[in-house]
């Protein structure tokens, strides 16, 4: 929407320049720019559209920065034979770099095989505009037995889950399973 308004302001400005040229070709008088109502209307309209366009762009930028970041979880490889070593990566996308809820969280990996890994860090106190959230987390885990697993990554503040992401993993029976 901001681009449309900016383009409209540009077209309006071009029309105003054309009107100004046409009016000035008919005996221009010193200091009459705002005394001609057509010039004044054109100038005011162009300024109004430019102001709305600027406000729309600023609001869009602000709203994007205020939104809660999202999580994307990927397992590599997504399938294989037991025992299977898997590397998981979580990317934190969008939102502000100083999004308070995501600053210095407890990280939890639920492997859906009876084990859960959890860790937290000591961090400096949160300062808006100065503190930065972590944008990538990763972990490795080895699955010894076959089955479909639902892997879950959670970001927590105290005991409250503030964000989570899941992916599925398929582990086929390996040559040594069951012996």
Describe this structure in words.
The protein is an alpha+beta fold. The protein folds into 2 domains: 2-66; 70-172, Immunoglobulin-like. The protein has helices at 2-24, 37-66; strands spanning 70-76, 79-81, 84-93, 106-110, 116-119, 136-143, 147-157, 160-172. The strands form 2 sheets. The protein has a 5-stranded mixed beta sheet, with no helix packed on it. Strands 1-3-6 form a 3-stranded antiparallel beta sheet, with no helix packed on it. Strand 4 and strand 5 (116-119) form a beta hairpin. Helix 1 packs antiparallel against helix 2. It is elongated and about 90 Å long.
What is the ordering of alpha helices and beta strands? HHEEEEEEEE
CATH topology name of the largest domain, in short, is: Immunoglobulin-like
- Number of H/I helices: 2
Low-pLDDT ranges: 1-6, 49-61
* Biggest β-sheet description: 5 strands, mixed
Overall pLDDT metric: 79
Rg over C-alpha atoms, rounded to the nearest angstrom: 29 Å
Q: What's the number of domains?
A: 2
Could you estimate the helical fraction of the residues in percent? 25-40%
Q: How far is the N terminus from the C terminus?
A: 64 Å
Strand content: 25-35%
Using DSSP, what is the number of strands?
Answer: 8
What CATH architecture label of the largest domain applies?
A: Sandwich
The CATH superfamily of the largest domain is Immunoglobulins
* Alpha-beta classification: alpha+beta
CATH class of the largest domain: Mainly Beta
Features:
single chain; about 180 residues; alpha+beta; Immunoglobulin-like; 2 domains; three-stranded antiparallel beta sheet; 2 helices; 8 strands; about 35% strand; elongated; disordered N terminus
């Amino acid at each position: 929407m901001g681009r449309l308004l900016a383009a409209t302001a540009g077209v309006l400005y071009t029309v105003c320049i054309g009107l100004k040229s046409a009016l000035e070709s008919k005996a221009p008088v010193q200091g009459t720019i705002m005394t001609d109502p057509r010039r004044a209307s054109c100038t005011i309209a162009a300024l109004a559209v430019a102001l709305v366009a600027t406000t729309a762009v600023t609001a869009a930028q602000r709203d994007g920065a205020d939104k809660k970041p999202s999580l994307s979880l990927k397992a590599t490889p997504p399938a294989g034979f037991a025992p299977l070593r898997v590397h998981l990566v979580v990317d934190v996308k969008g939102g502000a770099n100083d999004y308070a809820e995501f600053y210095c969280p407890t990280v939890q990996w639920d492997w859906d095989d009876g084990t859960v890994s959890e860790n937290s860090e000591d961090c400096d106190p949160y300062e808006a505009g100065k503190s930065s959230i972590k944008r990538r987390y990763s972990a490795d885990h080895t699955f010894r037995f076959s089955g479909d697993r639902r892997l879950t990554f959670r970001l927590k503040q105290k005991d409250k889950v503030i964000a989570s992401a899941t992916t599925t993993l398929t582990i086929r029976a390996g040559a040594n399973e069951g012996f």
